[in-house]
Design brief:
- Helix 4 links the parallel strand 1 and strand 2.
- Strands 3-2-1-4-5-7-6 form a seven-stranded mixed β-sheet, with helices on both faces.
- Helix 2 crosses helix 11 and helix 7 runs antiparallel to helix 11.
- It has a single domain, classed as Vaccinia Virus protein VP39 (Rossmann fold, 3-Layer(aba) Sandwich), CATH 3.40.50.
- Helices cover about 45% and strands about 20% of the residues.
- With about 300 residues, it is of the alpha/beta class.
């Protein structure tokens, strides 16, 4: 690995809270404009399915997997702008808590007003300090940003009630990649997105089993998400054709002063889209799904 990548990935690990704050302060409105308020992917059944229908069915399947209608307390970790947390709150009588570290993202999420929905700024690496437990937890498309993913999973286990469901979806790298393959295809987009490392599906599998989870379902979703990658590429091309540097100040969240760095962050999203699509087309980048259950038993008091 080149010295530049080594230095950047070390910085992302050691300063990941600051990196996340700054990245999303610059880009949250950009992605809302050219993607949507949901930073995860829709699962498509076939080529004729619309984007809206795919998202609706995807969310229905995720909520069914989490059994949210029977859950009293639900957490959406790395909730972003609150899109999926809102959908869950609309489909359960339980209380839904969205957690994110980005103040910029939460500033949009908190505009969603439902009586059983709340949002809180909290670090997932300190989730054991939250002081609450849950019957269902979702964590999608964000573990890749964490400095120690396996430690985070161990801590998340501690906020799950006995028998609770945990839906975990993350961007992984393919097993057995050479260092050259990683450096040529994966490292550039990781650098643009402040991602310190990528795990493999096998490493996550071992970690979940080690920490006492029952794996109910594990699958690679690349084929069902193919149209998302193509849409992201098309959206990037559209943004390049429309945006000018004078638009940048309107998009950047005003709660953090970024200065010229805001322009750099937004510029970097366009080559990132190219490398991400290359990662998918080569098969080096995988979209991995785990449905898990906390195996701890409920103690019956006689």
């Amino acid at each position: 690995m080149s010295a530049q990548f080594t230095d950047d990935f070390r910085r992302f690990r050691e300063n990941y809270v600051e990196c996340m704050e700054r990245l999303f302060a610059a880009t949250t409105d950009l992605y809302a404009k050219y993607w949507n308020d949901l930073l995860h992917f829709a699962l498509f059944d076939d080529e004729s399915q619309t984007w809206e229908e795919a998202f609706r069915k995807t969310h229905e399947s995720y909520m069914e997997a989490l059994r949210i209608r029977e859950a009293g307390r639900i957490a959406d970790l790395a909730c972003g702008r609150g899109g999926f947390a809102r959908v869950m709150a609309e489909n359960t009588s339980g209380r839904v808590l969205g957690i994110d570290i980005s103040q910029a993202q939460l500033s949009h999420a908190r505009k969603l007003k439902l009586p059983n929905l709340e949002f809180r700024r909290h670090d997932i690496m300190k989730i054991d300090e939250l002081g609450e437990t849950f019957d269902a937890v979702s964590f999608m498309d964000a573990a890749c940003y964490l400095p120690d993913k396996l430690l985070a999973i161990k801590k998340i286990k501690g906020i799950l009630n006995p028998g609770a469901r945990f839906l975990f979806i993350d961007w992984c790298k393919r097993e057995g990649l050479t260092s050259a393959q990683e450096e040529l295809v994966l490292y550039p987009f990781m650098r643009y997105w402040s991602v310190p490392s990528l795990e493999t599906q096998t490493r996550y599998d071992r970690c979940f089993r080690k920490n006492g989870f029952e794996i109910l379902e594990m699958k690679d979703l690349n084929e069902r998400t193919r149209r998302n990658w193509d849409f992201g590429y098309d959206a990037a091309i559209k943004a390049v054709s429309e945006l000018s540097l004078k638009d940048v100040p309107k998009m950047v969240w005003k709660g953090i002063t970024l200065g010229p760095e805001a322009v750099r962050f937004i510029k970097e999203q366009f080559p990132a889209a190219l490398y991400i699509k290359a990662g998918f087309d080569t098969g080096f980048l995988r979209y991995s799904y785990f449905l898990l259950e906390n195996k701890d038993k409920i103690v019956q008091v006689s």
